[in-house]
Amino acid sequence: MPSKEVIKHIGAGRIVAIMRGDFRGRETEIVQVLHEAGIRAVEVTLNSPEAVASIKRLAKEFAANIVVGAGTVLTVEEVERVADAGAAFIVSPNCVSSVIEATKRRDLVSMPGCFTPSEIIEAFDAGADAAKVFPAESLGVGFIRAMLSGPLPDALLVPTGGLTVENVGAYFEAGAWAAGIGSELVNPNVIRNSGLDSLYAQAMRFLAAVGMSNSGEE
């Protein structure tokens, strides 16, 4: 999927489900549940076991419905590996121009991590498509609102870190483009008894909190 279409897909779905940890080979089952709930984007972090293999498998399995990306991408070499595996977007915890540039050379969506206005501007100057605002729980809703109402009114900001069902809606009211949701949605506990049922219910709660229906449409 071309990067412009990936951007539209993520923006339409609003939630990026972050998979970090050991899911013991059950990633496909987990993403199937997320898809059934209406989630449209999944990020597999590279500090998870067999992450590249998981990205390759998920990208192939869910190509028509979910965009699969790689998270915790720190180097150009990692960009190349996950691009070859089928990743559609690249997320990093930091802002490194060489990683952003390598991402765009492969026509992938770039979402580097930023904590300050200067880092956000540097990210976009380097070619990033969106800025992962991390950790959002430290910066707060006011930071998103201030960036979008002041110096960067058209920026695509993705608050990530510490978002919950109770607070995620406020970030969208402040103008967030999408939100990265990690352990509050997907964590290794979902592979335990009844975990997938709980995952479906939690995904539905997050989607309702950001004004999305089961189909992923507004």
Q: What's the short version?
A:
The chain is of the alpha/beta class and 218 residues long. It has one domain: TIM Barrel (Alpha-Beta Barrel), CATH 3.20.20.70.
In terms of topology, how is this protein built?
Layout: H1 3-13, E1 15-19, H2 27-37, E2 41-45, H3 51-61, E3 67-71, H4 76-85, E4 89-91, H5 97-105, E5 109-111, E6 113-114, H6 117-125, E7 131-133, H7 136-139, H8 141-149, E8 157-159, H9 168-173, E9 179-181, H10 195-209
Parallel strand pairs: 1-2, 1-9, 2-3, 4-5, 6-7, 7-8
Helix pairs in contact: 2-10, 3-4, 4-5
Question: CATH superfamily name?
Answer: Aldolase class I
Assembly context of the chains: single chain
The number of E-state strands comes to 9
Q: How many domains in all?
A: 1
Strand order within the widest sheet?
3-2-1-9
Low-pLDDT runs = none
Averaged pLDDT: 95
Annotated CATH topology = TIM Barrel
Distance between the termini: 22 Å
Strand content: 5-15%
So how many helices? 10
Structural class, by secondary structure, is: alpha/beta
Gyration radius, to the nearest Å?
16 Å
Helix content: 40-55%
Which architecture per CATH?
Alpha-Beta Barrel
At the first level of CATH, the class is Alpha Beta
Dominant shape = globular
Largest sheet: 4 strands, parallel
Series of H and E elements: HEHEHEHEHEEHEHHEHEH
